[in-house]
Amino acid sequence: MPDSRKKTAADAWGALLKVHAALVPLLDRRLRSQAGTPLSWYDVLLELQAAPDRRLTMSELGERVVLSRTRVSRVVDELSREDLVRREANPDDARSAFAALTDAGLKRFRAAAPVYVRAIQQEFSGSLDDDDLRALADVLGRVRDNVQAG
């Protein structure tokens, strides 16, 4: 790889890390202050509300959220204490359990969703036009697919 490409790749990677490092805490603060929901909770609630029967095995949930598997278990415990999620036994596999969204969890998700969407529009996509957003989604999607392909 030519040195100029290495530098460009390092610059792009650095920019991605800096944007992530700036946006994640900002979104977390916005969700906490306006919806009373940490970003990590929102991530889990988002995936559960979109799942069939609003439940996923812990393994499935771990694959879908942006949290580490250890953190997912802790967040589900926190959400369970607040009655937003409940753990259910898996009758087909005693080694696994489901995380299921409760009615209170769905209500909390629905209250937080507009705050999250508004924050993304204001802080992430506000300075980008539609072509920029499509290009960015395409490029990051190709990187994700390449990483997932191994």
Question: Nutshell version of this structure?
Answer:
The protein is built from 6 helices and 3 strands, in the order H-H-E-H-H-E-E-H-H. It is mainly alpha-helical and 150 residues long.
Which key terms come to mind for this protein?
150 residues, mainly alpha
Number of helices: 6
Euclidean distance between termini CA atoms:
20 Å
Count of DSSP strands = 3
- CATH homology superfamily: Winged helix-like DNA-binding domain superfamily/Winged helix DNA-binding domain
Report the CATH C-level class: Mainly Alpha
Low-confidence stretches: none
Named CATH topology: Arc Repressor Mutant, subunit A
Q: Tell me the fraction of residues in β-strands, as a range.
A: 5-15%
Q: What class, by secondary structure content?
A: mainly alpha
Radius of gyration: 18 Å
CATH architecture: Orthogonal Bundle
Assign a percent range to the helix content: over 70%
| Count of structural domains | 1
Largest sheet: 3 strands, antiparallel
The main sheet orders its strands as 1-3-2
The helix-strand sequence is HHEHHEEHH
Structural shape: globular
Instruction: Average the pLDDT over all residues and give the rounded result.
Output: 94
Chain-wise SSE layout:
Elements: H1 3-35, H2 39-50, E1 55-57, H3 58-64, H4 69-81, E2 85-89, E3 97-101, H5 103-125, H6 130-149
Antiparallel strand pairs: 1-3, 2-3
Helix pairs in contact: 1-5, 2-5
Describe the overall structure:
The protein has 150 residues and is mainly alpha-helical. It has one domain (36-145): Orthogonal Bundle (Arc Repressor Mutant, subunit A), CATH 1.10.10.10. Helix content is 72%, strand content 9%. The protein has six helices and three strands. It has helices spanning 3-35, 39-50, 58-64, 69-81, 103-125, 130-149; strands at 55-57, 85-89, 97-101. A three-stranded antiparallel sheet has the order 1-3-2. Strand 2 and strand 3 (97-101) form a beta hairpin. Helix 1 crosses helix 5 and helix 2 (39-50) crosses helix 5 (103-125). The longest helix is centred in the N-terminal third of the chain and has 33 residues, at 3-35. It is globular. The model has no long low-confidence stretch (mean pLDDT 94).
